[in-house]
Specification:
Blueprint: H1 9-13, H2 20-41, H3 46-64, E1 66-67, E2 76-77, H4 78-98, H5 107-123, H6 128-138
Parallel strand pairs: 1-2
Helix pairs in contact: 2-3, 3-4, 4-5
């Protein structure tokens, strides 16, 4: 099933310079960023801290079970991972508004992360793992 965000003409024209391995590294850096944000926000803004924990846990869980390299050792394909990343980016962008901290400085972290998620999605080669899997099967 086509993803209307990843499979749109704007994203298709973007150069696919992020490999599955680079995407995995970015994902774990995002997890660290969310957890650091949660720690920094905990004292003054529990809603933002909990939203950061929820987003970080979602990215961590997805990343732990993603088959970034197409070798079948993990249950979630890299292409499916990209589709879930879309939802996570939307959740990050919506959290400040939905949880009532859109007018606070910490909201910028969520919106910035959502914007960087869109850039990473546009620049990631989600078909690379499938090509690698076919190449390994042919060998």
């Amino acid at each position: 099933m086509a993803n209307p965000i990843i499979d749109n003409p704007l994203f298709e024209r973007a150069p696919k310079v992020i490999s599955p391995t680079a995407h995995a590294v970015i994902d774990y850096l995002v997890v660290a960023h969310y957890f650091v944000t949660a720690g920094a926000a905990w004292k003054n803004n529990k809603r933002a801290a909990i939203a950061a924990i929820a987003n970080g846990a979602a990215v961590l869980g997805l990343s732990m079970f993603t088959d970034y390299w197409g070798d079948g050792r993990q249950p979630i394909s890299f292409e499916t991972h990209g589709k879930v990343d879309v939802v996570q980016g939307i959740a990050a962008a919506a959290a400040p508004v939905m949880l009532g901290f859109a007018d606070e400085a910490v909201a910028g972290m969520f919106w910035g992360q959502a914007a960087s998620e869109a850039a990473v999605l546009a620049l990631t080669d989600f078909k690379a793992a499938d090509r690698d899997e076919r190449r390994l099967a042919a060998a």
